[in-house]
Amino acid sequence: MNSGSRPERRPGLLRRRPAFRRVWMSEVVSLLGDWMSFVAVSLLALGGEGGGVVALALVMVGHHLPIALFAPVAGVLADRLDRRWLLIATSVVQGALTVGMLGAAVAGNVVGLQVLVFARASVGALRLPAQSAVLRHVVEEDELLEANAIASATWSVMFAVGMAFGGLIAGLGPAAALALDAASFGLSALFLRGLPPMVAEGRPAEGGMLSALASVRRDMVLAWRHAWERPPLLDAVLAKTPVHMANGGALLLLNLLATQLPFAGTGALTLGVLQCVRGAGTGVGPLVGVALVRRGLRGERAATGAVWVTFGAIAVFAVTRHPAALLAIVLAWGLGSGANWVLSSSEIQRLSPDRFVGRLSAVDNLALTVGLCATLLGGAVLVERTGVPAASAWLGLGAGVVTWLGAQWMLRRRAAAVSAVPAVSAVSAVSAVSAVSAPPPLPPETERS
């Protein structure tokens, strides 16, 4: 090729990485079913026999809390066992449990539904670190940011479409949405069957399932120590938690407003529309954040901006009741939280050795989920006692802001402590200071729930 010719454009990541395409397709069908059923289940909990604000919060907590409870086990399994096998097995079991949820919904059994939601989420919790770790096997290191952006955009599109269709289908009852959700898990497993084995760093599984379970505490401590000695990595691991604390209280308010101000005709349709717009924001936000980084904005500044866009949007959301304004605000809310998710996830995958990435993703999931569930439950109790729906959003926002400020203070102290450690030689001292004082730039990319 002569020097004057135009460079040949590479095909998109989904075209040039067939294994990544299989992972992506499995997530498309699974997420679509999940969000369609989520609308129906939430409305059933809020309006069914024995329902109310706390019942709604319990269903939402049941959807998320297992991520925290099982995060240590999930992270160790993802780093010791075949990640492909974990994804297939959990998809099959989740499909079977969704059939049970269908039976409980048809019977109007809110308590049984809550138990099955918790059980299904517990199985799903085992797949989250494996999903993050699998990207290391299906794309190159310099493609991780692009892969995460695609995954986030996919999550957002499926969230938006699933919520919109879920709002429509909820009018017919929850059975249809749950039946489609159960089928989606089976289709997801079929897509994953074509993947090759994916064990951390190409090693065979170390002793199998029992050995992995016996080593959970030791392995998680090793992973945490690795991050603790590397402040930029620790920052990425903790970055989502303050945002999700704010999200918890605001999500409860969003569900309540949909039933109290059904501007789309019904509460189900209004909830679907609001969640659809928020989901669109979570897809666009990462694209904006990544574009700013590519134009020269430092990665940590982009991440900080994403956090404060989320906080600001939730603050305005708590005091706004006009339909058009609500739509604009939930869009901004999605922009900030989506950018926060992708920027932090990409950094965890980039800065973690393959042997630790599953466990550090689990720590990330554990921290953010505990924060989300705490503000969901605390917000629900506060709303029932005060009768003020916005109280949940203010509780979550206050907790998120305080946690973010505390985390930034702690990270600065860690960076100073690590850089002050006496080095063996002048060369190693320079290397240590550089590692903690200069946050690594995000890799270039060509480009999420």
Automatic annotation (TrEMBL):
It is a multi-pass membrane protein. CDD domains: MFS_MefA_like (cd06173). Its main location: membrane. Keywords: Cell membrane, Membrane, Transmembrane, Transmembrane helix, Transport. The chain crosses the membrane at residues 23-47, 53-78, 85-105, 149-169, 302-319, 325-343, 363-382, 388-407, 419-438. It is found in: Cell membrane. PANTHER family: MACROLIDE-EFFLUX PROTEIN, MAJOR FACILITATOR SUPERFAMILY (MFS) PROFILE DOMAIN-CONTAINING PROTEIN. This is MFS transporter. It comes from Sorangium atrum.
